[in-house]
Amino acid sequence: MSKNGAKQVKTNILKSGIRFLMQFWQTLDRSYRRSIVYALVLHAAVLALLGSGWSSQAEVRPVVAPRHINAVVVDASVLDAKKKETDQAKKRIENQRQKDRQAQKELEKKKALEKKKKAEQKKKTDAEKKKLLEKKKAVDKKKKEEAQKKALIKKKEEQKKRAEKKQREEKQKQEAEAKRIKAEKLKEEEKRKQALLREQQEAQLQEMMLKAEQERQQEIEERLRQQQQREADRLQQAQLKADQIAEMNEVDRFIALIRAKITRNWHKPPGAKIGSTVVLQLHLFPTGELGRAEILKSSGDSTFDRSALSAATSISKYPVPADNRVFERNFRRFSMSFSHQED
Predict the structure, then answer these.
(1) Residues 334, 282: contact at Cβ < 8 Å?
(2) Mean pLDDT over residues 180-187, rounded?
(3) Long-range contact list for 51-54, CB < 8 A, 24+ apart?
(4) Which CATH architecture has domain 256-339?
(5) pLDDT tens digit string along 222-272?
(6) What string of DSSP letters covers 21-88?
(7) What confidence tens digit (pLDDT) does each residue in 105-139 have?
(8) What is the location of CATH 3.30.1150.10 in the chain?
């Protein structure tokens, strides 16, 4: 790198440093700036005192060195005196700095106190203003309420007068209307009486004619009802007889089927007496399933009886009619006799 280039770099660094110091100085508080200035002045004074102390000695002039050199002894007390003077100067500067700081604190305290007093005074003033404003608002509100109250009273009085006037007019109107209605009612009542008299006369005539017609109609209806009743009774009897015949035929058919089914499953014991008869009672369900079977009347031969009962209980399902009424009347519980005939 050339000398000019190096110089330019140093210059840029110096400028950057100066800009940084200026920015830093601007960010400091005024009290801090004052303290730094005092410190710089103090250091400058100390340096000046030190410089003036050393320069007070005799000026050294170049002389021709003699053949013999004489040594000069410096008194230590002189150095101690200068050092003491320097320390005293430092102490005075430090005392001054402390006084300045104390004065600054007192000033700031005084300012804070004044600020506090001003704030309290402002607060007090604001409170008084607020109080006066609230008092004024209260007075205005009271005036407004009184004005509204007066206006309301006046409005009520006007409404009352209008209502009384309207009531009087309505009463007069109602009285006039009542008179008109009364007159119309009298007129209508007279018309109604005349019409009622005519209606009564017509009603009496109509009633006589209607009564005669009703008597004739009742006579015809009674004859027709008796004729229809006789026909219905005849048809009912015929239907009942037909139903009974059909039911008897249906019952006989299923009795025969049940008897045949039991007989097919019956293994008569050898040696059974010819003509032995046992009566069984069967309890069936609407599905044809056997509820239970029992001997209702014994033949006198227990072996014969048990064989017939065994044949009845060996059948899981019996043929029964699909008509539930026929089943309930004839097959819910029924008895059946079984005899040993000669083959």
Answers:
(1) yes
(2) 89
(3) 53/82, 53/85, 53/86
(4) 2-Layer Sandwich (3.30)
(5) 888 887 887 676 666 555 555 556 556 889 999 999 999 999 999 998 888
(6) HHHHHHHS-HHHHHHHHHHHHHHHHHHHHHHHHHHTSPPP------SSPPPPPPPHHHHHHHHHHHHH
(7) 888 898 899 899 988 988 988 888 898 889 989 88
(8) 256-339
